[in-house]
User: Fold these one by one.
Assistant:
Number 1:
Amino acid sequence: MNPDKKIYLDYNSTTPVDPGVLEEMLPYFTEKFGNASSISHAFGWEAEEAVDIAREQIANLIGASATEITFTSGATEAINIALRGLSKAHRDNGNHIITCATEHKAVLDTCESLEQEGFEVTYLPVDESGMINLNELHSAIRNETILVTLMHANNEIATIHPLKEISKITRENSIPLMSDATQSVGKIPVDVKDLGVDIMTFSSHKMYGPKGAGALYLNKDNKPDISPFITGGGQEKGVRPGTLNVPAIVGFGKACELCSNKMEEDSERLSLLREKLEKELLEMDGVELNGTAENRLPYMTNISFQNIDNTYMIRRLKNLAVSQGSACTSSTHKPSHVLKAIGLSNELALSSIRIGLGRFTTEEEIKTAISTIKEVIPRLKLSMQ
Ligand SMILES: Cc1ncc(COP(=O)(O)O)c(C=O)c1O
């Protein structure tokens, strides 16, 4: 393998667009450029039809029906629409929201902003594997609770929350359950009806689709009211008005179809590659797995390298594109809130890296990653003595 070749191992941050997705999108930039809301001519009808097909493909991947899908620009926007919109619409029923400490910043920062508007938020703690305690969830519920929002799979440590068990509790208490499933949709089977989730958010660019498209699922049988915070042309039933990004939506739809077809194969192959990577790295002194080896996504790992600063380490890993954690917080060089929540010290959290594998990761790349890390770490340790 060419030693200068860059190896991408940050698939949880974003994924390359699958060639099959790109091919499907291209005509919608050129000859099929119509506005999906232009109902008076064939250019509009063509775009509208493409959006309908994509909506169907996306709904199919999560066991929903097409009418339950609202297009957004990504998961952050979908989360904001749902959290802010539901809180505003249900304010007369209560002002309490339950979430957990390891959520993505899109949820945590929105909750914080809602707190400034007078809402009360309970942030459930997690154990060392990143799991909430269901009894604690039960106890946190109050008469004023209007929403429980708990992510499906964690974006730093891969822990999967037991949504089916969680929804038993929320349903018993007639509280809507929202889940940020940005990391799980397309990677593991997700069936919203089986899981009992009422609101789900996810994103195209995490599953080999383009950036600029996301989805908000709203359960039609238990539909929570959402007051839109964007106003405009009434698209997406007024929940998210604005001209639809047709090429991105077409790509998102195709990406979902490909994920349905390739999920099993990708999952089996990538789990084996991750196993190999983890086995080799965990043999080294002072190297530990963060989180849990069970109930987690099959494509990623988070590992700490005692006494080695992760920024320094990542710089030395040169051609390996790995990350300190979430892309949204990696510019700050603060210890990850997720790793702190599972009990790591500041120092150990700042000695951890996330390695994310994906559809285009090869065995050869993993072998190179292992040998590069095994070569660099002892040298770093020596230089730090
Ligand atoms: C768990 C999780 N939620 C939300 C987001 C935000 O997604 P988007 O980039 O589509 O806004 C991300 C992306 O990093 C994520 O991993």
Number 2:
Amino acid sequence: MRIGYGFDIHRTDADRPLVLGGVTFDDAPFGLTGHSDADVVIHALIDALLGALALGDIGRWFPDSDPQWAGADSRRLLERVVAEMSRAGWRPGNVDITVIAERPRLAGRIEAMRRSLAALLDCAAEQVSVKATTHEGIGPLGGQEAIAAHAVALLVPAEPDASPAKPPAGPAGGEELS
Ligand SMILES: [Zn+2]
């Protein structure tokens, strides 16, 4: 198994739509600033996956100096990382995400985010946890200046018999070590 952790934070911006976990919140009081669509949930998840694969970070894969990612739909970025994960022989065991947002209240959209992320990860919604909390009015997060997300991802071999992490075969003759 491989485990990875990701964190991301974006400033709020009243002139942009709010997109979290690939879900657009039409009724949100603000969106987030960023080079792409600023989906802080997907960005944290991407970093968790890349961390588990030891393949660098989102900034290396999708640099904000590169115009091709301007306004990018973060779902497309996640798809690219998921393809890379599959190529390397891994699939998600489960992922767990915590979003920190003072507003809007996310409880009513948790299931939509889980389904959205599960579809992108090509796994079941039961393998995807999304939790939301506020920052209790404390600091920039509590003051609605930003929204942040933490993510952890556990990866398992896509095919147990072809595990990239499988130890080398034992000595010829099937001798067992005790
Ligand atoms: Zn980001």
Number 3:
Amino acid sequence: MALEEKREKRPPVTPMMIEEEAALRNGSRGLTPGPWAEAAGPRPRTTERHIAVHKRLVLGFAVSILALLAVTMIAVLLSVRFEECGAAADGPPRASGNGSLSGVARQPPGAGQPPGQPEEEARGGEAAEEEEEEEEEWQRRQELPPWARPRLPRHLRPLHYNLMLSAFMENFTFSGEVNVQLEVRNASRYIVLHAHRMHIEAVRVAEDKLAGGVRVARTFFYPQTQVFVVVLNRSLEVQRSYNLKIIYNALIENELLGFFRSSYVLHGERRFLAVTQFSPTHARKAFPCFDEPIYKATFKISIRHQATYLSLSNMPVETSVFEEDGWVTDHFSQTPLMSTYYLAWAVCNFTYRETVTKSGVVVRLYARPDAIRRGSGDYALNITRSLIEFYEDYFKVPYSLPKLDLLAVPKHPYAAMENWGLSVFVEQRILLDPSISSILYLLDVTMVIVHELCHQWFGDLVTPVWWEDVWLKEGFAHYFEFVGTDYLYPGWNMEKQRFLTDVLHEVMLLDGLASSHPVSQEVQQATDIDRVFDWIAYKKGAALIRMLANFMGHSVFQMGLQDYLTIHKYGNAARNDLWNTLSKALKRVGKSVNIQEVMDQWTLQMGYPVITILGNETTDIIVISQERFVYDSDAKPKDPSRGDNSYLWQIPLTIAVGNTSHISSEAIIWVSNKSEHHRIPAFEEAGWLLGNINQTGYFRVNYDIRNWRLLINQLTRNHEVISVSNRAGLIDDAFNLARAGYLPQNIPLEIIRYLSEEKDFLPWHAASRALYPLDKLLDRTENYNIFNEYILRQVASMYLKLGWPMNNLNKSLVQASYQHEELRREVIMLACSFGNKHCHQQAATLISDWISSNRNRIPLNVRDIVYCTGVSLMDEDVWEFIWMKFHSTTAVSEKKILLEALTCSDDRNLLNRLLNLSLNSEVVLDQDAIDVIIHVARNPHGRDLAWKFFREKWKILNARYGEALFMNSKLVSGVTEFLNTEGELRELKNFIKSYEGGAAVSFSRAVETVEANVRWQRLYKEELFHWLRKSLTH
Ligand SMILES: [Zn+2]
């Protein structure tokens, strides 16, 4: 799953909406669904109706059953409880179509009751009493009843599911019948499985080999753990196999999880589609199932829909059966063993293009017909074919299904989801029109696809046992984004270079907070599971895997992965399984490292170390020490039982020594103590020491000032002696060490002086990213100009050398000169944002030309910079022009940068207007509103406006995004991260005291960040300005 930084809202469901939807359904349901779907008509679910019909229906319901089943049913009536009878609102319930009703229990709509409705209210008093007795019994045994435990009880295992669905797109409901073949491991009277927000019609349990059912005593939902419980009259017997049949129906909701709907406009007409998102815990909203990754089973799915639509699922369609009334049922082939959260289906009227890999895998890209016609999916389709071939070769495990469909949808909570054989992408992350896309956009699309394809092996084929290890699959997929992109574009050096700025440097910012958390997080409740999908899991996971690959050696690492996938395919594996396989691979090449012991320290402890290397001119002995790196040493540790001093890591440290013309080859030193002495041969003759060669390790390195000076000299005289990655690494380490107070403030500013000679993109990129937070710390201070002036001086000569790009880059140029174009873009961005006059003029000229000619001749790769600069410098007319273009453009990539440009204005009225418009869904898409607010907060003229707006609208924002934890946390950190005055800190703390619920973790991180900002201002701001003043007068 690739996290989307822009996630769409989940609109709160109000009672009114439920009623409206119910009315719509009941009014327009004129169909004759098939026999198994027939019993599963949708039901209104309002509380009032529920209670009103309850009493009068109990009797009628029982009578009709009696009439139907006559004498044999007396026994059934003794055990079956018709706890509630909303079903009878549509007449007497019908048999499920399989003859005997022996052992069938019918479930009331209380089953699908609106969230928050008390359980007792929805059930008959007698049943509740019985349940209470049972609960007391469990209490006496001092055990939680099996349905109240955070994990499913282990006594049953699903082997196979037959799932038959009917999708009613005209009223957005669906009905289903699931037959689960169960293996009994321990005898029990209870069947506990997940089911959430659905209406269960009927339940039947039968022994596989024998006729006749096992009688169901009662059934009930237990919403706290999102399970459905079937209580039987007798225990299921060990080692026998049973069939559980459940008939149910539910809504195709207008939201983002489970089986949900979205829409798009084609030729002026709104069209609907329905698609699933089950990861991590939402399969239970679409069918009753054992919704934990460990319960791998095979699935046979059938989908019945109107013939005007098509249906897709993980496997190819085996047969389609057409009915006379314009309906069709697609029967899909059976899946291999897989976890529920990777199951997927869709009902849409998209079209597709197709390609076939060398090994015969059919790859199709499905999207809305106009996009397919334009060829917007062709880029994704082509790289997918290459990438499947790449992964098959790298992992030496063939792709496991006969086909892979990529589905581009308008609305999705994540950038993409790697469902096995049917991966779903949000349109912005897969459709690409080469004539209007920047390199950055192309890179985004590419990496999301590389990520999802990696999951077909790491995730779909071998699945983490439980969610605490989600970082394993996400870390791998994120790491392979860079490896796979290198395969497609060998000159881009993604894994060796861009990985540093985009992953390593980025995540060390987050993980340097005392309020961070270990990459492997304990997860108990289902509601905790969303929490584990964060940048620590993705980026730190990837950084740790890269460190591992480097200290193992890439070829041994690759062999280890091949073994791991071969051993565990179609199964589940935990991190220790991986560590063991990798240790064995190392052993085979004669090396012995206990990988589990090393990696446990990195995955179970939060944070990372800073290594300090102290040399001595007169000897070849150096002192190496380690401590936990934190930005704010005053911040309270999250785990008060252990001080920062108790953190220790086994660190694979590489060290090289160098002088003006030469650098030694590095050697690995395993550092495992607080402080160690090491002899470095040839150190005496050499000038300087350099640690963490090519920044393959997940840690920072600090030196004594003398060594920093020698390194600065080296960079100034001949920077190419030090590798590109280490030049970027030195810049990032120096800025962050200074920010945290480990290093004087002038050292990083002295380092970047050499940049005027730097022709590689990466060190510039590292500098630009490191300068950004410093700029935000200073941008509202009265001496800001000094800082500004200093940065402009460093940028000026390179800006002159590189100039501006020509218009209309063609694709081959993009590929050939990626590094050069990215460097030029970076330098122009720095020049324009720090106020280089030529840069400003150029941007204004380009915008004026666009306005007067109404032809956009602005080079693609710098459009965002030009738009933003134009809006910030020019008058309101330009703002209005961009606003108009934002409305009229249809290209998704262009729309995004136009909207962001509007936040660059200096005019507070315009910024306020934009903030207020951002919550109007008809003007700004819900998923884009967050970006608007965050970008206004980055603008020094708008920071306080965004902060005020955020507090005033918190209730609305939290209701919109609260359930999408990742989105909410992005908003909280985006609005608060650059607050840096005592007053703002007070406002933040007061707000947290008074706010209502949600995002607690994000707020504690926000407080720590702002405290660190305030502390930096107090301790280091003057020191920095003092040095800058001195430096500028020289
Ligand atoms: Zn992923």
